[in-house]
Each structure stands twice: as C-alpha cells, then as structure tokens.
UniProtKB/TrEMBL annotation:
Family to which this protein belongs: Belongs to the HyuE racemase family.
Protein known as: Aspartate/glutamate racemase family protein
InterPro entries, per database record: Asp/Glu/hydantoin_racemase (IPR015942), Hydantoin_racemase-like (IPR052186), Iso_Racemase_Enz_sf (IPR053714)
Source organism (scientific name): Streptomyces tubbatahanensis
Pfam families per the UniProt record, alphabetical: Asp_Glu_race
Amino acid sequence: MRILVVNVNTTRSITDAIGRQAKSAASPGTEIVPLTPSFGAESVEGNYESYLAALAVMETVRAYQKPFDAVIQAGYGEHGREGLQELLDVPVVDITEAAASTAQFLGRTYSVVTSLDRTVPLIEERLHAAGLSARCASVRASGLPVLALEQDEKAAVDAIAEQAARAVEDDRAEVICLGCGGMSGLTERVVDRTGVPVVDGVTAAVKIAESLVGLGLSTSKVRTYAPPRPKAVLNWPPVAR
C-alpha cells in the first residue's frame, strides 16, 4: 500500500516532520510518500494562502507518476479536500477531519489547539462543513506562527500545552486535537501536561487511510464528488511570466 502525504505549504522541513510522523504510524507494508508542493506559501495561515494551497496540493498529486492507494491532505483547516475527491478514485483523508472524528471515539467533547488566532475561523468552518462541530468545545490559538513551531520546540510545547490545559479546565474538553500539521511529534509531551488523550491528525489520517484501503472503500462518485466534467479550462496551468 502506498499513501501520499501532501504538505500544504512549501517548507520542506515541515514536510519531513510530517513524513516522519506518518511513517511512525504506518503498518508494515505501507509506504509513506511525503510530498511538498512546487508553488505556494511557506506557511498557510489565512484564506488566500489556503486556497492557493488547495490548488498546489491538487496539482502536486496530479503530477505524481507512480500508482498510489490513498492521499492524506496534511493541513489543518485548509481548503481542497473536496477537489481531490473529485479528481481521484482512491480514498482522500484530511487531517482536520481525521483528528476530530478520532477524538469523538475518545471523549464526549474535544478542543483543537492551533497556531495563530486568525486560523481559528478557518478550522471552525471546516469542522462545521464536515459535520464535526457539534461536539467541538473550542478552537484555541497558541499564538505561535506555523514556522515558529520548528524554531523553539520548548516554547511551542509550553504554548500549546497551556491552551490545551485551558481547554480542558475552562471549556470542559475531554480530548485535545493538535490543530496544525507542523505540530506532529508533540503528542506525548502535551499528554504529559494535560492528562487527556491528544490526537495528532497526521497519525490518525494514516490509520484511517489504511483502514479504508483495507476495506476496499473509496469516495462515492454518484453525485457530490463525481469527476469534473470534461470542458475547456483556459490558461491552466498558468504560464510563468
């Protein structure tokens, strides 16, 4: 089984971290292929960058030449999953939905701890669109930009754990979801600080993707995610100027 794990930003060190986390969760015989888009922002922290990332991820997957069995979109709260589902005949798993759906097996309510406050509405909207918002107690921001998560890991853990603890104490969350692909690898340390289950979206997505492939299941093509209708598409991909 081969699973493509696609970073939504163009920072290769984050792709490497996501890839390591995905491989740690993969079963024997599962090949994890981390991919970095060839265009887009170095970090995704707003709507413009998120829509740009959606295009970049779709084009990155379309350009991949070898067979694959599933795709993981490794960006929290980002756009584009629906487009991938139209394009592909294999399962597509988004880490936002993977983390939230897994959290609901573990407790009555869950909270998401993400990077900047400006990303909170994007995550809330994606959870609502996916039908996963009813049991979401809160979405909290650590105040750290995505790229800062790599620069000072101790500060990152402290900021994330502080917001996770507040979610448990103030918002009555029973499970915490790490709301950024760049937070992969911080799970155990946040568990130590909070005492509640902590779900990393990348690892959850790997296990869900493996399960879907193992069950022989993929996206329904009867209506919503039917393949795009054949038609002329003007000036795409865009020509470099």
